[in-house]
Specification:
By secondary structure, the protein is α/β, with parallel strands linked by helices. Helices cover about 30% and strands about 20% of the residues.
Length: about 270
């Protein structure tokens, strides 16, 4: 387990999580407990564990969607607190979320869905105007993001006409438009066939590396985590039980330095 005071090469960590406990509304008990880890700027990490391990609860807490019952989350030294609306809006400009189910508006064009990533830096009036009268520079930005995921030719297509893999790529393009410092990908390949899953993970890895963006990606498959991510966090029963680096063909140069923690019983599942 990574020690709470771990120092990352190159300076202060981007994300710090210390002794985090989270109890979602309606839950009888915390679904995350005693979670501690840190993340360096630009670091890529897989979050693995079975359904109900607490992965989704953790990701929702990291982006401010769920409050901490105990402990602390900080992004670039600033506390993540859902009770601070101004701080939360600023936080969500820094953190992009790629959900499992894409969250695309299927009746809108792909360009509109991609540029939803800009809403955190646009006024409400500009967002409404874009829906009916997009400017050339805005469409150029959408096309550039789509080109990076090999979908530039679908700029004007309706999102509902795309395949599942294409929709996930549009969600990635939307995250790029947001210009985040951290991307949280929640089971992004769970509904994809193996070929499409590998394609999406290769794409996420490449884009995160090129942009220098930190990435946390939750997965059910440990083999995919080892293939595409140099570091893996493993959760079970709401607790972080392992924090390891891996050495694989895809992650050459990493050394195996796993120091397993101990699982704690009794934390209920969250359906993650």
């Amino acid at each position: 387990m990574t020690a709470p005071g771990v120092q990352h090469p190159g300076g202060a960590p981007l994300l710090e999580v210390r002794d985090l406990g989270v109890q979602p509304p309606g839950a009888a008990a915390p679904t995350c407990a005693g979670v501690s880890f840190s993340l360096a700027p630009g670091e890529r990490v897989a979050l693995v564990g079975p359904s109900g391990a607490g992965k989704t609860t953790l990701l929702r807490a990291l982006n401010g969607s769920l409050p901490a019952l105990s402990g602390r989350i900080a992004l670039a030294g600033r506390a993540v607190d859902p009770r601070d609306p101004g701080g939360l809006r600023a936080l969500r400009r820094e953190i992009a979320v790629i959900p499992q189910r894409h969250d695309l508006v299927e009746g809108l064009r792909v360009s509109h869905n991609v540029m939803a990533g800009a809403l955190g830096r646009w006024s409400g009036a500009r967002a409404l105007r874009f829906l009916v009268w997009p400017r050339h520079d805005e469409l150029d930005e959408a096309r550039a993001a789509l080109d990076r995921v090999d979908l530039g030719h679908l700029l004007r297509a309706r999102a509902g006409t795309l395949s599942g893999g294409q929709q996930q790529r549009v969600a990635i393009a939307r995250a790029l438009v947001q210009r985040p410092r951290l991307i949280l990908a929640d089971e992004p390949v769970a509904s994809l066939d193996p070929e499409a899953a590998h394609g999406v993970l290769r794409l996420l890895r490449r884009l995160a590396e090129e942009a220098g963006v930190a990435l946390i990606c939750s997965l059910h498959q440990p083999d995919l985590a080892a293939e595409y991510f140099p570091r893996t966090l493993e959760m079970r029963d709401g607790r972080l039980i392992d924090d390891r680096t891996v050495s694989t063909q895809a992650n050459s140069g990493a050394t195996n330095s796993a120091v397993p923690g101990s699982a704690a019983a009794g934390a209920p599942s969250d359906g993650a």
